[in-house]
Amino acid sequence: MSRTIPVGLGARAYEVVVGAGLLEDAGARLKPFLKTRRAAVVSDETVWALHGARLSAALEREGVQALPVVVPPGEQTKSFEGLADLSDRLLALELDRGDLVVAFGGGVVGDLAGFAAAIYKRGIDFVQVPTTLLAQVDSSVGGKTAIDTPRGKNLVGAFHQPRLVLADLDVLATLAEREMRAGYAEVIKYGLLGDFGFFEWLEANGPKVLAREPDALSRAVARCVEMKAEIVAHDEKEQGRRALLNLGHTFGHALEAETGYGAALLHGEAVAAGQALAFRFSAAQGLCPAQDARRAAAAIAAAGLPTTLAEVPGHPFSAERLVRHMAQDKKAEAGRLTFILARGIGDAFVAKAVDQAAVRDFLIAEGAQP
Ligand code: NAD
After folding, report:
1. Is 246 a catalytic residue?
2. Catalytic one among 78, 144, 181, 325?
3. First-to-last CA distance in the chain?
4. What is the pLDDT, as a whole number, of residue 328?
5. Domains of the chain
6. pLDDT digit string, tens, across residues 59-94
7. Top mutation candidate among 109, 112, 179, 236 for ligand 1, by most atoms within 8 Å of CB
């Protein structure tokens, strides 16, 4: 059983297929997008070792040659060096515009391979085959691709929509528990930002999603993709509503910047704490009932995710430094802070020109150092 969710972007429209066993018929599904009989499959060492043979075999069954380009796992690969290396390897394969790049991995591989595809010979088609929960519900859909620079995350990139997204739920079976929980932070984000009913469903069914029960997992991933597809179709380049998907990200990025973007704090964990903080900040500003902030945090904590600064490695943080990171965030305009705040669960909004001093005071009240 699979679900197909359209992303309505006119000439750049595509489908996201969510379901079990999709890898097995990847060849047939990719064929319509191939002008030649070759596809460069970009993957990381971990994903390739676990699932590469199955994808290759599926492509080869349909007469498509899979050309693996395997990169080291981890955020460091999403760098100028990683991009140079990948571009060079694609050139060495003599890939041309009629060929296809397949991004087969988590958000790191999707962002890197997607950006390489965006600029390789001025643009080549690519397909996303996301293998983490985070990538299936978020990063593989919407066409944002980027690499990090020493000045920050995702600062150099392009919008480049995939031609197809194949989210095979079976590949999540091998994903580490912690990565599963980190991805779940993005799942709960969709409920918190715009769907109270989904949030309530997650309160009851979150443990089943985390345990990878097929029906619950499928329903959760499909609902997230549906919401993302709807938002992206109306605001591809993030002029407005797409920014809602950054709920928890301004606080989260500041925490990631302070902890060094490493294994100490995964992106999803930072976003989890960031969402709890965004709700409590909204409550402190009188925008949202305190009860909603407590309920949001309880649902995040129930998934084993952090909801307070004290639970984040590196605590106690300096409020001043955290605010400085937020001011450097690319979403900050003219020194004013932009946040995604909430009027309640399922009702987030873009708040421009948030007062830096109010954020600093709030962080101090949350246990950061003055
Ligand atoms: P990731 O790609 O680093 O994957 C996490 C780890 O899981 C890696 O070690 C990987 O090798 C391993 N892995 C992947 N699939 C596996 C599987 N099926 N079984 C076992 N192990 C597996 O991290 P991620 O959390 O998927 O993505 C994070 C990245 O996504 C960040 O760089 C972030 O900036 C980016 N992101 C992009 C967008 C976007 O819209 N483009 C949105 C959100 C996040």
Report:
1. yes
2. 144
3. 54
4. 78
5. 2-174 (3.40.50.1970), 197-365 (1.20.1090.10)
6. 999 999 999 999 999 999 999 999 999 999 999 999
7. 179
Look up the pTM and report it. 0.97
| Ligand 1, atom nearest to 144 Cα | 41
- pLDDT attached to residue 124: 97
Q: Is residue 122 among the annotated active site residues?
A: yes
Ligand 1 centre to CA of 230 (Å) is 23
253 tagged catalytic: yes
